[in-house]
Design goal:
- The protein folds into two domains: about 80 residues, Ubiquitin-like (UB roll); about 160 residues, no CATH class.
- Helices cover about 55% and strands about 10% of the residues.
- Helix 5 packs across helix 8.
- It is built from nine helices and six strands, in the order E-E-E-E-H-H-E-H-E-H-H-H-H-H-H.
- It is of the alpha+beta class.
- The strands form two sheets. A four-stranded mixed sheet has the order 2-1-6-5, with helices on one face. Strands 3-4 form a two-stranded antiparallel ribbon.
- The protein is globular.
C-alpha cells in the first residue's frame, strides 16, 4: 500500500511496510526519514511527529486501524523539547565571582533560593550523568554480544553501509540478543534488562531510533505495553520452551 506524506510543503508517495497482516508503524517512519533524508535533522530539530490532514497526531497503536479505515494522507513535523535543565544551569550564579559570596548570607531569602537552585541543578546534572552512563553501558553490552557472534559482524556491515537494517538482519540481531539475555537472566528477564538491551540497540545504531516514541527504543521494547521486537521474540522463546517441557514430561508408553 502507498501513502502520501507531506514534509515542508513537499509531498511524496511512500510504501507502507506490513508485519504479518498489520501495517508496521515503526518501519514506515523509518521509510519517511530515509525518503525525505531527515536523519541529520533529528539531532537538531527535535522529535518527529506524524499527523493526519486535520493535524491530529498519530500514535503507533492506531496507525494500522487508520490505514485500514482509508486514511492515506499524512503530514510530518517536529516537536521541539525545551532544554529546561540547560536553561536552569545557565542562569546559576558563580559563587566565586564575587567576594560577597564569602560572607554569611544565611539569613537572606535570596541567598537561600540561590543555594536551593544550585543543589537542584547539581542533582539534575548527577541524574543526567547517570542516564548517560546507563546508555553507554547498554551500548557496550549490545556491542559485545553482537561482536562475539559470527553473524553479528554481518549486522554491523549492513548498518555501516545502509544506515539501517533489513528485516532479516533486524530479526537476526534480535535473536542473538534474546538468546544472550535468556542465557544470562533466565527465561523471564527483568523489565529493566529488556529496556536496557533496547536502549543499547538504538544507542549503538542511532539511525534505528524511533523519533515518534518517548525514548526512541519502544519499537524494540515498550516497558508499559510489554511489546516490541525483543518482547515478541521472548514470548516465542518462552512458548517454545514450555512446549518442549511438556513434551519431555509426557510419559512414554511401550507396547508389550
Amino acid at each position: 500500500m502507498l501513502a502520501k506524506v507531506e514534509y515542508a510543503g513537499v509531498q511524496k508517495y511512500i510504501k507502507v511496510p506490513q508485519n504479518d497482516e498489520n501495517f508496521d508503524f515503526f518501519n514506515f517512519t523509518q521509510e519517511v526519514i530515509q525518503k525525505f533524508s531527515l536523519q541529520a535533522l533529528l539531532q537538531t530539530e527535535g522529535e518527529l511527529r506524524l499527523h493526519d490532514e486535520s493535524g491530529t497526531e498519530i500514535d503507533a497503536d492506531v496507525f494500522d486501524e487508520l490505514l485500514k479505515s482509508g486514511v492515506r494522507n499524512f503530514k510530518v513535523g517536529y516537536h521541539q523539547q525545551q532544554a529546561t535543565e540547560e536553561s536552569e544551569s545557565s542562569v546559576l550564579p558563580d559563587p566565586s565571582a564575587s567576594p560577597a559570596s564569602t560572607t554569611d548570607t544565611s539569613a537572606s531569602p535570596a541567598s537561600s533560593r540561590s543555594d536551593s537552585t544550585i543543589i537542584l541543578a547539581s542533582t539534575k546534572n548527577r541524574k543526567r550523568g547517570l542516564r548517560e552512563l546507563d546508555r553507554d553501558e547498554a551500548r557496550q553490552k549490545v556491542e559485545t554480544v553482537l561482536r562475539s557472534n559470527p553473524k553479528g559482524e554481518e549486522i554491523f556491515k549492513e548498518y555501516d553501509k545502509t544506515k539501517s537494517l533489513s528485516d532479516a538482519a533486524r530479526r537476526q540481531m534480535v535473536n542473538i540478543l534474546v538468546a544472550e539475555m535468556t542465557d544470562s537472566y533466565g527465561r523471564v528477564p527483568p523489565t529493566s534488562v529488556r529496556a536496557s538491551y533496547a536502549q543499547g540497540i538504538v544507542t549503538l545504531f542511532p539511525y534505528l531510533q524511533d523519533p515518534f516514541s518517548k525514548n526512541g527504543y519502544e519499537h524494540y521494547y515498550d516497558v508499559e505495553a510489554n511489546t516490541g521486537y525483543l518482547a515478541w521474540r521472548l514470548k516465542t522463546v518462552q512458548r517454545n520452551s514450555c512446549h518442549d517441557s511438556q513434551k519431555r514430561s509426557r510419559p512414554q508408553f511401550q507396547d508389550d
